[in-house]
# Entry
Amino acid sequence: MKRWLFIIVILAILFLPGFLLPRFGADAVTASVAVQPEVLFELEFGSFTFPVSNTLFTTWLVMLLILLFAFFATRKMELVPSGLQNVMELIVEMWDGLGHNVAGARGRKFLPIVLTIFIFVLFSNWLGLVPGFGPIGYIVVDKKHPAPNGIVTFDLPPALEEFLGPKHGAGEHAGVLAPFVRSPSTDINTTLALALISVIMTQVFGMQALGVVKYWFARFLMIGKFVAFFKTLFKGKPNFGLLVFGFLDLFMGILEFISEVSKILSFTFRLFGNIFAGEVVLLIMAFLFFALPFPFYALEIFVGFIQAFVFAILTLVFMTIATTAHGAEEHH
# Structure
């Protein structure tokens, strides 16, 4: 009897609100889904205007949360960790172990970049899942653009309306919901910036480990065979096999360069696509039933962790490959 009562309560929590509360209309879904981040307000510095989008504002929140997490986790260090210190040590030890297994002694050098990327992406992904963050925002309504069905509107205080109004008062923004808080990972600018940091730092570590000239000529400008061919040519005994292999090396260098550029695109769109699609799925589930998104939260929490882990572990692997000299595998 208790088991059936528990099941009935769970089903009631999941499905009953969808019948009792106002439905989230299709127009509200359309007004809430936008690939481009919405600008909340603008900061003016003389003649220069700096637009602040909801994803940038949330990025500042994520940075603040990370700083608070680091502060409270390390405020009172104890020999036997507990609480946030235990969580912090667990994360650091996990990535320190992964770094040692993947890169050996070099893992400690990559750890600050890799660990920072992991924590930032993880906080960004999970912050967008906090209930109430996405649906609460700013929307301009008028006679031509009334509030979509399912969206409840309130008049802003005059001072706040004047602060937000100039950007969103234009007719093209009417009827579009601008959430105050939106996951930074749903902004392609943020994921592109993270991708650039990952790929550029990979090149920096590679040049530090192998030397600037050796790194670029060993990976991208592989002209060693051409140099060897011209040496044999000047000696009067040209080795055309070196010339053939020189063109092959040159082609491989071009492919390697294209591969490095494609990493930026892969990093950018993998993280952006998965997190943005997850939030859209939750929104569509809310359209079907009010409480239907809740079963999907566990999946999205898992996806948020996996995407942060994949981004960081690939960065670690690429840094390891970039700092490994050709033929080094033969000495292990």
Q: What stands out?
A: Residues 17-23, 26-31, 327-332 have pLDDT under 50 and may be disordered. Residues 131 and 294 are 10 Å apart (CA to CA).
